[in-house]
Design goal:
Blueprint: H1 6-22, H2 25-34, H3 42-50, H4 69-81, H5 88-101, H6 104-116, E1 121-124, E2 139-141, E3 144-153, E4 160-165, E5 168-173, E6 178-183, E7 191-200, E8 202-203, H7 211-244, E9 246-247, E10 250-251, H8 256-285, H9 290-315, H10 326-338, H11 343-353
Parallel strand pairs: 1-4
Antiparallel strand pairs: 2-3, 3-7, 4-5, 5-8, 6-7, 9-10
Helix pairs in contact: 1-4, 4-7, 5-6, 5-7, 7-8, 7-9, 7-10, 8-9, 9-10, 9-11
Length: 356
Amino acid sequence: MAVLTEEQTMLRDMARDWAGNESPVSAWRKVRDANEAAGYDAGAWATMAEMGWTGIIIPEAQGGSDFGWLSLGLVIEELGKTLTASPLAASASAAAAILLGGSEDQKARWLPRIASGELVATLAVDEGPRFDPANIAAKVEGGKLSGTKAFVAEGDSAGLFVVAATDGLYLVEAGAGVSVSRRHLADFRSHAQVTFDGAAAEKLADGGDGLLDAVADRAAVLASAEMLGMAGAAFDTTLAYLKQRVQFGQVLATFQALQHRMANLYSEIELMRSAVEAGLSAIDRGGDTRQAASLAKGKANEVGHLMSRELIQLHGGIGMTDEYDAGFTLKRMRVLEQMWGNAAYHRDRFARLSGF
């Protein structure tokens, strides 16, 4: 477990208290039932901005707090525990692209608006059903972007897209030449197909060959942090259920076979925590983050899949009902597993980076 500063501990505790008291799972159920394309509560998002969460990784010169990726990961983890929907991770990932590859003018124009929560930004990379940064067909000719991005998180409410094209990353404002079509995925969050047809595009000034990898790594680690929060909450919920559910005249928690399964899950979640926090810390240190990011997302995918499956199985039939919250965790976890690379993708990438 990472050693936190006093300020990071206070930030984590504030996020935990707010999520538990102001944004419990019942709040997500209301958002789901409202069936709006944005997929999150605008009032909750405004509150997050007021608390400064939208500017955690943005420098003070651009209106943020420059508190680092581990600090942002702590907030994302706590929000994951209550399945709170927000564009926080998407906007931070898009901001990372501008921080890493943008000119001073681009940073000055966009980062303050992202830091204040006024502007929702997102990455538009995938063009097929799986994350594959080597398979990009979108292109820019004469400053105009053409192409289609298949699954863009928060695409329904984004005002700025950071788009992967054949020759780098481009900034594209929502508006003329940009059409957004809502997509319904299992988690019922905002995922849009975005079509660019002659949209005005501005290339990030320092769009080197490794920029897309670096940005995707940050998005992957943030997804892993959300999965960590969900896995921890699922474990606590399952353990509490086993301690009170009586079957065959005995409390389920007294069965040794179930005790072994819970002990295994606890160990796996602790390993997941180590990998995710190491990934966040690696980003804060700077340099090559590829191995740490792949280790974090690969482990998060494996453990998140296992924990969400056991959550359903150990609850039995009630876990499959819409009235119970377990299904929300399962559905969100399955979507996050595929975002920014599934387990097979990151195992292969980590092996290649290790020389195998």
